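Figure 2 data, in text form.
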Amino acid sequence: MPVFKFYYPLQVRYADLDPQWHVNNTQFLAYIEQARLAYVCHLDLWDGKSFLDLGIIIADVHVAYLSPIVLGQKIRVGVRVSRIGNKSLTFDNQVEDEDSGEVLATGEVVAVAYDFHKQKTGPVSEVWREKITAFEGLATS
């Protein structure tokens, strides 16, 4: 079971629901995105002001839906980086019931280092590599 050092609490909104009265599958992606942005801000990798300065772009997303989420349910999203490559980062996510810890969904997001001003990819910055490695306790190669 993966260990998450960062969790982001979320409130389920009425607008998140579908006609079956549970959170629509598309909202899981929004929850994961919101938690990922909070993670990079928490690690002081982005100031949260200009998306042109974020430095990553999403290349691939996988979500496994394990249990429905309902209105009023307290949830949190765990975020961690499990891998740092030359140009990419792999983010693992876990959507949980905040009270019981039940895992409601898991996700994996591959982000690529990207310069929005130049509109091209590049290597993961040393600042990102150092801060994430220190926070997550990743092995350096």
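Caption note: The two ends are 23 Å apart (CA to CA).
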